Amino acid sequence: MASISCYVERFIVQENYVRDFNSLSQKEILALAISLEEEDERIYSDFGESLRENFPGTAQVFEEMRQEEIEHRRKLIEIYKQKFGEHIPLVRRNDVRGFVQRKPIWLNTPLRLEQIRAQFGAMEAETRRFYQHAAQRAQDASIRLLLDDLAAAETYHVERAAELEKEELKPEVREEEDKAKRRLFVLQIVQPGLAGLMDGSVSTLAPVFAAAFATKNTWDAFAVGLAASLGAGISMGFAEALSDDGSLTGRGTPWLRGLICGAMTALGGIGHTLPYLIHNFNVATTVAIIVVLIELATITWVRHRFMDTPPFSAAVQVAFGGALVFATGILIGNS
Fold it and tell me: What is the reported pTM?
């Protein structure tokens, strides 16, 4: 209750320090506009920098947009100094009620290309609405004209971004960016998922089938398989997450890789464990073997599709490894 009370009190205090947009003077509106343009310019700079290595064409698009935001801010500062003098008070978006609170880019990386483009559209729409409302409240004709022009410019920005993409992202550049996107997908999603699926599907064969053939009891085999699958999932998840932070390898955030790897490891083991919920031992074992074949076929397809492994070579490698572990479990279970 104390924590809830503190949260409510902090929220009330924050609300008391937030101004309503309609209470702002022309001077404060211009100061806010300058602050917004500076923030947007820095965000576009962050977008461009985060994309430069893998998507240089799209990074150049955001550099062009950054330059336009700099020009908007220059015009705002110029008219502010003409009307109100040299000192520009710091009025931020957080100080005015009604703005969407943005999560800082540096706390929200790495962003996918689609996320960046979606955030860009949302930013432009919000800034356009701000200039439209600000123009309606401006009494000075020159200020109102500038704000109307900036509102129109923000509307044009989305179309301009599309034009810049066509200019900068020529077919060969777009092809390179598509290849880079595929490489990142393989590094950040496919590789940890495949490692987990292989470990879960293959390494748990021995304990599951050893328990099954040693006890001839389907529930015992299920309990052993479930324990082995979950234990392997947790172990592989932590191992992947702690292997590197992704800053040098480009493999993405460690917690996401660990989650994918751990989940696929557990899934790979549970797949051929679930059939042992069937009470008939022979039927359960037959179904489990069929599931194992499906798992191995899936691993073979993924290796061929995303790792460019020849299909025959991938099939032989996966089948050989699976057969060795399966035989180990049978031999131990029948000993």
Answer: 0.49
Q: Which amino acid would we find at residue 169?
A: L
- Given a contact cutoff of 8 angstroms between Cβ atoms, the answer to whether 298 and 176 are in contact is no
DSSP summary character for residue 201: I
Residues sharing a CB contact under 8 Å with residue 328, sequence separation 6 or more, in sequence order? 205, 206, 210
Where do the domains of the chain lie?
21-169, 188-334
102 or 93, greater pLDDT: 93
pLDDT category of residue 159 using cuts at 50, 70 and 90: low
Q: Report whether 118 contacts 27 (CB < 8 A).
A: no
DSSP state, residue 100? P
* CA 68 to each of CA 40, 44, 156: distance values in angstroms, whole numbers, following the listed order: 10, 10, 11
Residue 40 has pLDDT above 80, yes or no: yes
Class of CATH domain 21-169:
mainly alpha
**Cα atoms found within 13 Å of the Cα of residue 241, Cβ hemisphere only:** 13
